[in-house]
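Its record is quoted verbatim for completeness.
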Amino acid sequence: MKKIALVFVLLAVSSSVFSAPAELRLGIDPTFPPFESKDAQGNLVGFDVDLGKSICEKINRKCVFVENTFDGLIPALKAKKFDAILSSLSINEERKKSIDFSSALFTTPVYLITHRQSGLSASADTLKGKRVGVQQGSVFETYANKYWRDNGVNVVPYASSDQVYADLALGRLDATLDDAASATVAFLDKLQGAGFELNGREVFDKDLFGKGTGLGLRKGDDKLRESIDQAIAEIKTDGTFSRLNKQYFTFDVSPRS
């Protein structure tokens, strides 16, 4: 009788194990509000975080967020420290040489951030001899290096955007290039950002910013990419994306056509 009972216990345990959803490990750099950051209790929060949870729900996976510095996300993905990158990763041709991407999740405008009445603009002519801080490994650093560095602009990379804003507020930098939504939440709406602004017009480069952001995946992970693409399509048709868009932003962040 005891043996029969033990068999039933083992069957119940094995059934619960096999019915539990598999994990989807998502690499993330939580220093980029309102997309990914930590609240006062140390919990991960943000637009990307909520999108990730929605995607996991659609494909019946358990979301596990793995923290990593932004410039180390792609090497860590290749080293299989996680299954995909979900950290406002812009889709561009240079990155596509080494990783694959999901379909586009969202896109937001990019601006130069300066002190008001600085007399600067997002051009090499006015920025020549100035110090422009950028997050290391970001498309903002790529843009600054592409258009400004060889024209006399001192492009200064930082490990995180909050370090950039700390030095900008202290006058150690003259400007930074960043996502407008993140810049507003992380800096302009705070006391340290008083007197600073989104300078002039949107900065745009079709190759760097035009394709929006997506999840980065290892090359060859086609089944995972296809399931994630299907989940993205579903959250955009069932109202989930629209609800989160309105929760975090006052403008539409749908990818540009």
